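Per-record layout

source: Desulfobacca acetoxidans
name: Beta-lactamase domain protein
length: 253
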Amino acid sequence: MRVEIVIIGSGTGVPYRRRGAPAAAVKIRGCLVLFDLGAGTLRSMLNYDLNFNDIDILCLSHHHPDHVGDLIPFLFATRYALGYTRQHPFWVLAADGFMNFYGRLQNAFGQWLEPPPGLMQVREFSCDREDEFTLADLRIRTAPVNHIATSLAYRLEAGGKAVVYSGDTDWSDSLINLAQGADVLILEAANPFKVPGHLTPVEAGRLAAQTGVPRLVLTHFYPPCDEMDVVAACAQTYAGEIVRAEDGLCLRV
């Protein structure tokens, strides 16, 4: 079984020509799974032959604006009868409290953020412990990580393959446990200098080394990361394959 990963946005909330806001797509078992939905994601997807009609599962790591900036346009677009032709439900996966967050968006935008009846299904996950969700032959596990109280990392499994997406995180033993035995870890390495709630490239390597994953994809770069060799920094503490994410990076597992 082949798994395809597309990094749609490898940056942050800082406007930056080289990098868009966070988003990563995984094609697995005929499903399109999208991790985060930063501003501009829906339009950028079209550059990689991905369409918002085809999103089967949307996994939100947390509710910071740079990770959910296109949620409002996405929900609004589902109401465009001439352009949104999906007939079967899509899932939104998020931490406990998402429905309250969504309710506040509805207070602002009313019915315009309500997809056609029965089209959107929501599953909330615990912020205190590992949790899991199964859809057909896909298994999705989550773990809380150290960023904000509602931050989650995700592990996507099917056909003996496993991809882990960290979202924003500082050092998290829960993430190390979640990523054990995975094929790929998509891990933030936000800044070359330490910022609480995030990892440096050296820290990212050290964390990845404890998971045993053979391939590490570094992403969520603030502009200063492009002024240094993040791969070399990470390689000080991690001996596996290191991939520096760029918008449009495509990997096969």
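summary: The chain has one domain: 3-252. The chain has seven helices and 14 strands.
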